[in-house]
Amino acid sequence: MLTNIIIFTFYILSIYYALNVNENSKLRILLIIISSFFILIFFSLMIGNNLIFNLLSNLVLDKYIFLISLSMYFIIILSIYIIRELKSIREKLTTVSRKLALRKTSKK
Amino acid sequence: MKHLKKKKKLLTNDTFVIVPFYNEGKVLINVIKKLKNSFKNIICVDDGSNNKNQIGKHKLGVFLIKHPINLGQGAALQTGINYAIKKKAKTIVTFDADGQHSAKDAIEMIKLLKKNDLDLVQGSRFYKKQNNNIPFIRKLILRVATIIANFFDNTQFTDTHNGLRVFNLNFAKKINIKNNRMSHPHDINKLVSKYNFKFSEYPTNIKYTHYSLSKGQKNLNAINILFDILISQLIKK
After folding, report:
1. Is residue B156 packed enough to be buried (19+ CB in 10 Å), middle (13-18) or exposed (0-12)?
2. Given this model, what pLDDT does residue A61 score?
3. Below-50 pLDDT ranges, chain B
4. Spatial separation of the C-alpha atoms in residues B45 and B97, rounded to whole Å
5. What pLDDT does residue A57 have?
6. Do B235 and A80 touch (CB under 8 A)?
7. Structural domains for chain B
8. pLDDT at B32
9. Which of B13, B43, B62, B66 to mutate to test the interface with A (most CBs of A within 10 A)?
10. A78 pLDDT exceeds 90?
């Protein structure tokens, strides 16, 4: 139970970092490290290495809760980055369109 | 005579009315004609309309800016504001193109802004308990949207999604609308608490016609607005 809470807190904290991280921030590096760590676990589970499950059982961690929360973590992180990227593209598009529009202003 | 003098004051070069529009027809021409009776400088921002607007044909003497693509009302307003600042505007009015707003209200709001040296005067359908014949569902959505927006923006407006507002140059310079779509009032209203701007509300008369209801925001759009507000709150880049 305690391990579940710790893992859950870990997820929440990393998502919080992802939400508030600025470009070129040191937190971004931390986020990359955390994400890489989870990616490694994820692939280990995919390959079917029992080592992780053994570790989980030693930590008294429900593997299903772990897997569900891991998947949720990836979905949330991925969504944040997609929304950010789309937002950035939209801002650039708006700036360019605005510049073009202001150049062609006429009095009618 | 007094009335004419007052009118002349409003026709000064430093007041600009921004009218963003998208696929508007005859109603837009009537709105501009009415505004032209009181205002000299009108900026019409065509947000990438598919149809050919009639502004050029009627020779209304307005500044016309055309977005190459449809970006949303928020983006159109920001374009208009940028242009008004470039033209050295001192007072800026935002006005909907669907004929819901009244030019008289805009004039009264300018007077209120100048008299009390305010930064923003926000039009409101609920200020001082007016009866605007607002459809029940719309009224309910507007109330809920106002509560949510006030919570996130730390403001106390009674109607956050009213398109009729008047502000001065200082306020205009701080506006940076990032929500291109209908959630743009969130970007404007939050400035009040962020920079401690002096503001007031003014009871506006909104004309709900079949046309304005069909052209304006759909009730279901409230979900999009809520989503945009939440996203902008969560992801601050």
Report:
1. exposed
2. 62
3. 1
4. 10
5. 66
6. yes
7. 2-234 (3.90.550.10)
8. 93
9. B66
10. no
* Residues 24 through 53 of chain A touching chain B, CB cutoff 8 Å: none
Residues from chain A contacting residue B177 (CB–CB below 8 Å): none
pLDDT (tens digit per residue) in B13-54:
789 999 999 988 788 999 999 999 999 999 999 999 887 767
| Chain A CA closest to residue B72 | A94
Q: Report the distance separating Cα B210 and Cα A13, nearest Å.
A: 50
Picking from B45, B51, B92, the residue whose alpha carbon sits closest to that of residue B71 is B45
> Which residues are within 8 A (CB) of B117 and not within 5 positions of it... i.e. 6 or more apart?
B198
Q: Which residues in A lie closer than 8 A to residue B235 (C-beta atoms)?
A: 19, 80, 83-84, 87
Query: Distance (Å) from the C-alpha of residue A106 to the closest C-alpha of chain B?
Result: 5
Pairs of CB atoms within 8 A across A/B? 63
> Residue B66 is nearest to which of A91, A93, A104, comparing CB atoms?
A104
Map out the domains of chain A as residue ranges. 2-78
Query: Of the candidates B88, B95, B112, which has an alpha carbon nearest to the alpha carbon of residue B42?
Result: B95
In terms of DSSP bridges, do strands B120-124 and B165-168 run parallel, antiparallel, or are they unpaired? antiparallel
Q: Which residue of A has its CA nearest to B233?
A: A19
Residue range A9-58, pLDDT digits in tens: 777 777 777 777 666 666 667 777 777 777 677 666 666 656 666 666 66
